[in-house]
Write a structure and sequence with these properties.
It is built from two helices and no strands. The protein is mostly helical.
């Protein structure tokens, strides 16, 4: 890999950053809300699965005692 001076590196980074298509504020807010909703749905789902499995294990262990 060729060595690049710090000034050249910064120039290249700025060139590449200028090519990026940045999301609009509306897109960012929409995506954030979708992530929060999906995270909440999955958290509730896994809480329910955990509760069901926990009660099933307790039921099975009640036979051992």
């Amino acid at each position: 890999m060729a060595k690049v001076s710090p000034g050249e590196f910064v120039r290249q980074v700025r060139q590449e950053t200028a090519k990026v298509t940045w999301p609009t504020r509306k897109e960012t807010v929409t995506t954030t809300v979708m992530v929060l909703i999906m995270t909440t749905v999955l958290a509730v789902f896994f809480l329910g699965v955990d509760q069901i499995l926990g009660r099933f294990v307790q039921f099975l262990l009640s036979f051992a005692g």
